[in-house]
Amino acid sequence: MKEAAYLKIIAEVDLMDNNKMYMVKDGQLIEFDLPTFGETVIVTLGGKVDRLETTVKRKV
């Protein structure tokens, strides 16, 4: 029986920064800046993240 080899990678993120969102895709940590006002939608395709859709709004 052949065992699958895997590489364990450890990343460090700042849990006190509320203006960031992190996503793991294909073994890489991707950092996104969140808008001050608005919404960010995560769109998945086949159980994997396909894209992010961000709508920015202004407060008047």
Folded structure, characterized:
The strands form two sheets. The protein has a two-stranded antiparallel ribbon. The protein contains no helices and four strands. A hairpin with a 2-residue loop joins strand 3 (38-45) and strand 4 (48-56). With 60 residues, it is mainly beta. The protein is flat, with a radius of gyration of 16 Å.
Give me some keywords for this one:
60 residues, two-stranded antiparallel ribbon, two-stranded antiparallel sheet
Output the radius of gyration.
16 Å
First-last Cα distance? 64 Å
Which structural class do you get from the secondary structure elements? mainly beta
Q: What order do the SSEs take from the amino end to the carboxyl end, as H and E?
A: EEEE
| Total helical elements | 0
Helical content class: under 10%
- Name the poorly predicted regions: none
Strand content: over 45%
Total strand count, please? Answer: 4
Largest sheet: 2 strands, antiparallel
Give the overall shape.
flat
Biggest sheet: strands side by side, in what order?
Answer: 1-2
Mean pLDDT: 87
Helix-strand blueprint:
Layout: E1 20-25, E2 28-33, E3 38-45, E4 48-56
Antiparallel strand pairs: 1-2, 3-4
Give a brief rundown of this model.
The chain is mainly beta. Helices cover 0% and strands 48% of the residues.
